[in-house]
């Protein structure tokens, strides 16, 4: 995700990316993110600061790149045999992930980036593709699911809005309940 | 909004706030926000940088404070005589404001702040209170409106999610249409 076009995987460029990402992750476990600097990351990664500036432009863009890579799911959503339980299971996991400290930091980092490739939109595209996998599976199984935008509007957006703009605690079953309400046609 | 507790309105503290806010606004009209620095703001406002650091802590917090002050509506939502048209009119205006360049910058600034008083939550509280005014008026007029959370979940959250996480163009009537769908009980 971080690699610019034309970079050979496994080459020097990939090694630099891996060591810089690793340096960010380990440093963030040691110091507050407000104190993190590019020279620190460079020193830990064994590269020069200018290597980082050349490749990522600035620190927010680097942090967003690391966040985005972490957010990439290893697997597709669990297949439980039915649309309702697939979506409920996914929504529950999504809420847990986005509400966690790393999830909140990830959201903050992708929103703060100045990268023109918009990590925030890339992040939302990953969410959308996970949802689409569930919907495609449901169609194959003869179900008639709502479309991905409807799931985003009814389940994802209200959760993310609360996480970003509301400091009240969120019901741990909030996203799952939104799925249930959507499928039942209730408010 | 910016003033800490115990500051006398009209005193030196209020004058400092006004001149610093004014300096931020005029500088942002001249240079990209990525280039703005505390010493620049201080010079323009005729105060020392340490005055700004002491009062606001850092630049993101100052920017969020200015953004929040601008977001404060001068009036309550327009009274059109009925819940539906009140909410539709408000939703249309809200979308226009939040989609504009100053609105997007405001959202970005309140989300980037490190201020423990959470300008993002203060900003959402202003939105909520505008909605609540419409709902209270409807109840007085004998209508039975949905609650403010329902409006936030169905109208505000999907709009803000798209503005933050989607670079596709948004239908200019999106928020208004969401109000109509909510009141009609359609998806």
Write a structural description.
Two copies of one chain form a homodimer. Chain A is an all-alpha fold. Chain A folds into two domains: 12-57, Arc Repressor Mutant, subunit A; 74-184, Tetracycline Repressor, domain 2. Chain A is 67% helix and 0% strand. The first copy, chain A, is built from nine helices and no strands. In chain A, helix 4 (59-71) runs parallel beside helix 7 (119-140) and helix 7 (119-140) crosses helix 8 (148-165). The interface between A and B is medium-sized, with 27 and 27 residues. Chains A, B: Residues 14-74 form the HTH tetR-type domain. Chains A, B: This is TetR family transcriptional regulator. Chains A, B: It comes from Caballeronia mineralivorans PML1(12).
Which short descriptors sum up this protein?
Tetracycline Repressor, domain 2, mainly alpha, homodimer, 9 helices, 187 residues, 0% strand
